[in-house]
Specification:
Helix content is 28%, strand content 28%. It is an alpha+beta fold and 385 residues long. The strands form five sheets. It has a six-stranded mixed sheet with strand order 4-1-3-14-17-18. Strands 5, 6, 7, 8, 9 and 12 form a six-stranded antiparallel sheet that branches. A two-stranded antiparallel ribbon has the order 2-13.
Length: 385
């Protein structure tokens, strides 16, 4: 006997329920991914040999086959989904966006600020390197450079941005940040100000571009509650009466005996300063200053050779361990953070100055820095740091 048997209904309902459940999950995950937080994650980056990134034009240089590692980290703004999944990973440091910018400054400025810090770091590294080799580097103040702009400010509305250089206020020349602050300090709210500006900005990959000089006119604002403290500038007394909504640093130009460039495409921040300094010294030295050891460093540098604190050192130590380097120079204040990564066999050396680094390298076989080309006037300096 032949019989027609209908397919069972219950499995089809189960399949429908499963498909609906999957659709709900996908929708929830997509929503979590779109939910952007003001929270950032620092994770281990890469350890890059900076010595082949250094180019010198105008003086004899040498390649000693040395490797000085520039160690970076990845800084990423998190979605809610990433925030949840990153907590399942090791070697992740979470920081709020408020730690990365001043109050009122949007995190959208972070990229430009990072490139600005890198540009400043390259300049300081070049100065410190030449001075370590006995050269004197003349400098000239050339204005006040904008480091940040508040989102709700007349400066932002006027189109001013990170790296723009102020050269005059109301027709008076500005040579430093304190010159600009002194000219603006006592102005009443709603005063009209004419700023002489040289437009400067960074490309998407961090290349500095210099645009035209022009005048920008804007009005001062009432000082926000909780702001307007002492300026810190000599001769400028009392709290400011109004403000434009921007941060400033001194603009300085240096006269170098040669053109030194370091290719740091797509890398921002100041923490490669020490690595770049050592790589430049090595390129201009007769012999290897590292003793041909593979070394890694992190730390800011200033023109005098002082090494400053940085962030993400534990995550950088992980990257150093993966690179095979046995020596890792870190700012003294970051020693505990570097050790917390628990990288076996890694010698972590805390330092506060370039001189300390060079002396340690000599203790493991590196040479005293001796310039291939001796300093000549007007760059000769009888004192070597």
């Amino acid at each position: 006997m032949h019989a027609s048997i209908s397919p069972p209904k219950r499995p089809r309902r189960r399949l429908t329920i499963i498909l609906v459940s999957l659709a709900v999950i996908v929708s929830v995950l997509a929503g979590l991914q779109r939910w952007q937080l003001n929270e950032f994650a620092i994770t281990p980056g890469s350890a890059t040999n900076v010595t082949p990134l250094v180019a010198v034009k105008g003086l004899t240089s040498a390649h000693h086959g040395d490797r000085v590692l520039l160690v970076d980290v990845y800084l990423q703004q998190l979605s809610m989904l990433q925030y949840l999944t990153f907590h399942l990973q090791s070697h992740v440091e979470f920081i709020p966006g408020s730690w990365l910018t001043s109050p009122g400054v949007p995190t959208s400025e972070l990229t430009a600020q990072g490139y600005q810090e890198m540009a400043d770091s390259k300049t300081a590294a070049t100065v410190a390197a030449f001075q370590a080799l006995g050269w004197h580097i003349p400098s000239t103040p050339n204005g006040a450079v904008i480091t940040e702009v508040l989102g709700d400010s007349t400066a932002n509305a006027a189109g001013l941005g990170v790296e723009d250089r102020i050269t005059a206020v109301n027709g008076h020349a500005v040579r430093s940040s304190c010159d600009a602050i002194a000219a603006l300090h006592s102005l009443a709210p709603n005063s009209t100000v004419h700023l002489g500006i040289t437009h400067q900005y960074f490309s998407d990959t961090g290349i500095l571009r210099v645009g035209r000089a022009h005048v920008v006119s804007l009005q001062t604002q009432t000082v926000p509650e909780g702001s307007g403290g002492p300026s810190g500038c000599p001769g400028v007394k009392g709290p400011e009466r109004s403000f434009l909504g921007m941060g400033l640093e001194d603009g300085v130009s240096y006269t170098f005996p040669a053109k030194v460039s370091v290719d740091t495409t797509d890398i921002g921040g100041p923490s490669a300063g020490l690595a770049m300094t050592l790589a430049i010294i090595n390129a201009l030295s007769k012999t290897s200053i590292t003793g041909h050891h593979l070394i890694a460093t992190t730390g800011t540098i200033d023109p005098s050779g002082a090494v400053g604190d940085v962030g993400g050192v534990a995550e950088k130590a992980v990257a150093v361990g993966q690179s095979g380097a046995k020596y890792f120079f870190v700012p003294r204040a970051e020693l505990a953070a570097a050790k917390s990564a628990g990288v076996a066999g890694l010698h972590i050396i805390p330092v506060t100055s370039l001189g300390q680094v060079l002396r340690y390298l000599q203790s493991i076989g590196g040479s005293i820095p001796v310039p291939i080309t001796p300093p000549t006037k007007p760059y000769f300096s009888p004192v070597t740091p």
